[in-house]
Amino acid sequence: MVVSPRSLAIELALEAGRLLRERLGHVQAIRYKGEINLVTDVDLASERLILHRIREEFPEHAILSEEQPTSAEVLRAPYTWVVDPLDGTTNFAHGYPMFAVSIAWLCEGEPYIGVVYQPMLDELFVAERGHGAYLNGQRLYVSTEHVLRRSLLATGFPYDAERRRQAVRDFVHFIDVARAIRRDGTAAIDLCYVAAGRFDGFWERELSPWDTAAGVLLVREAGGMVTNEAGEPYRLGDLVCVASNGQIHQEMLAVLAAAQHQQDPHDD
Ligand code: IPD
Ligand code: CA
Ligand code: CA
Fold it and tell me: How many Cα atoms sit within 13 Å of 38 on the Cβ side?
């Protein structure tokens, strides 16, 4: 039977998600990619499962997956799979049940299929370019809130301690002007929650293509906006990702600009 990228992405997200659910609380090996950035045996098992099937079904497609050393050049291939086999590894390693599998399929660098699965809540987010975004089969739309002061936002912080400084400055500026901010440790889910109208906006610096490829499509297909800090359409690999319902976007960009212009007393 011929498998479509969409059905394969869904099947693999569900299968890998089941593996994550079963292995929660049973991490056997942890390796460090940096001082605090870790990878567990479960990240690797999930990745093996996903990549094996993609290579079997679509041997000619390129793959960019978090735990596989590859150049981001593969994003220029005609067809590329972008995979985060476990988004929220820190949560997972601590037994905090908020994490996901994120799988995107790109044509010429543009996401066409985006699938994110949160196995603990059994929530499957699926978007297809031009065909909308869905949560467990229900069409998704971003929120209609147009005032930042009444908005619920989300963000995250880079693993690199040095780079966290600017992220903290951004946070301090936003906490003054938003209703509240959440930090749940999985950018893929944060983006899906913007698509679902649960969050009105999200921003984060230093994300990688596998964190955002699927979620960005979800937000756009739900009627939202995703840009870099300059307000240009977000492209995989951009330094800053700003996602929102569109209504509060300019206000969010203005807050980020103000935060960036603030002098860091440690900088000189
Ligand atoms: C991380 C999560 C987190 C974000 C980090 C990412 P990982 O991905 O998405 O929310 O703040 O920047 O690296 O390492 O758990 O796959
Ligand atoms: Ca990730
Ligand atoms: Ca990951």
Answer: 16
Domain ranges of the chain: 5-139, 148-267
* Ligand 1 atom index nearest CA of 186: 10
148 CA distance to ligand 2 middle (Å):
27
CA of 74 to the centre of ligand 2 (A): 18
Return mean pLDDT, the chain. Answer: 94
The span from the CA of 190 to the CA of 241, in Å, is: 12
Q: What is the CATH number of domain 148-267?
A: 3.40.190.80
HSE toward the beta carbon, residue 121, CA cutoff 13 A: 15
Question: How much distance in Å is there from the Cα of 84 to the middle of ligand 3?
Answer: 5
What's the average model confidence in pLDDT over 41-54?
96
If you take atom 8 of ligand 1, which residue's CA is the nearest one? Answer: 87
Question: How far is residue 87's CA from residue 8's CA, in Å, rounded to a whole number?
Answer: 19
Going by CATH, does the domain composed of 5-139 fall within 3.40.190.290?
A: no
| pLDDT tens digits, one per residue of 103-130 | 999 999 999 999 999 999 999 999 999 9
Q: Report the residue among 32, 87, 101 best suited for mutation to probe ligand 1: largest number of ligand atoms under 8 A from its CB.
A: 87
118 CB-contact burial (10 Å; exposed 0-12 / middle 13-18 / buried 19+): buried
